[in-house]
Design goal:
This protein has helices spanning 8-14, 16-27, 56-73, 82-88, 108-117, 134-137, 157-176, 182-203, 206-216, 230-245, 281-292, 304-310, 328-347, and strands at 49-54, 77-81, 96-102, 123-128, 141-144, 221-226, 248-253, 270-274, 297-302, 316-319. By secondary structure, it is an alpha/beta fold. Helix 2 runs parallel beside helix 7, helix 3 runs antiparallel to helix 10 and helix 10 (230-245) runs parallel beside helix 13 (328-347). The longest helix has 22 residues, at 182-203. The chain is globular, with a radius of gyration of 20 Å. The structure holds 5-amino-5-deoxy-1-O-phosphono-D-mannitol. The active site is at residue 359. One of its GO terms (molecular function) is carbohydrate derivative binding. This is Glutamine--fructose-6-phosphate aminotransferase [isomerizing]. Keywords: Aminotransferase, Cytoplasm, Glutamine amidotransferase, Repeat, Transferase.
Amino acid sequence: DKAGHRHFMAKEIAEQPAVLAEAIRHYLPADEDAVRLPGAGLDFSGVQRLTLVACGTAYYACLTAKYWFEKLARIPVEVDIASEFRYREPPLPAGTVALFVSQSGETADTLAALRYCRGKADRIVSVVNVPESSIARESDLALPIHAGVEIGVASTKAFTCQLAVLLILALKAAADRGEMTPEALSDHISALRGLPHLMNTALEADDEIRDAAQQLSSARDVLFLGRGLMFPLALEGALKLKEISYIHAEAYASGELKHGPIALIDSMMPVVVMAPKDALFDKTVSNMQEVMAREGKVMLISNPAGLAAAGDGVWLSIAMPDVQDAVAPILYAVPAQLLAYHTAVAKGTDVDQPRNLAKSVTVE
Ligand code: M6R
């Protein structure tokens, strides 16, 4: 049932405020500023290292989580693609917690990577959408994301719920390790609690994004740029676009632009820049100006202050509401998803069942 939407993907994008509120409610009890994990939980105080493993969109959720765990909880983090991890046979030093992220909980490579870690990692934790899945069952601790059934092949609500659970876990880690003051913890918790509401505001940019997508739909190649927490999101934006619109899209960390990809820039290559006005904003803007100086067409996704400071001369701009830095990637996932969705609709591709793809990749 598409609940009045044209595609399951549109329905699942629109459901995000509600499912995020649900995910947050499960981990952040309403009456206190603390994190509650199911079952025996997990104490991060003795954890030496985290290894995060996943595929596709779930892998980009892990890349985002690396920034959170390192910056907020000061835990060294390694992130890997499951199909690489499993055959590289990496050593896992004592004190390693292995964490697997998977919507379906049945992805063959992620499951094989989990089995490799059995007996080698201190704890095996998973962040899953399907609680009865193989990955959930074979973990010491399974953390459900409460996104509800996701039908569209392109993952949307599962991604933002994965991010929310991973951020909550990083906050728990920061608190367990004494790396965060109670005030900072409650600031982050309020930012998370405020997210579903902000996401509704982000969804209101739908018409604007549909118009932008109309223009994007004639491009052959698109480049996505972001720094810090916006870099994994740039990767996710590019994956979404290529999956459902079949437009070739790539993402780079903004700082990498001059190390090669700037050679691609001309008036035919739209560049999507995701940059809320945060501590790294000026650096991203200078990369954006390098693109514009070469006739590159920039689509800037930012908050009002960011658009006021750097929106002059850009090709298209999309406004997002102001948001606390740590939760920004969860909010900015919305325009990335809508952009891919409307571009695919403009091109007339099969949004929910893109060619050559399966919802769950249970073979290698
Ligand atoms: O079920 P999983 O989360 O393990 O799936 C991982 C990837 O196959 C999945 O995220 C894929 O990249 C999606 N089609 C992305 O939209």
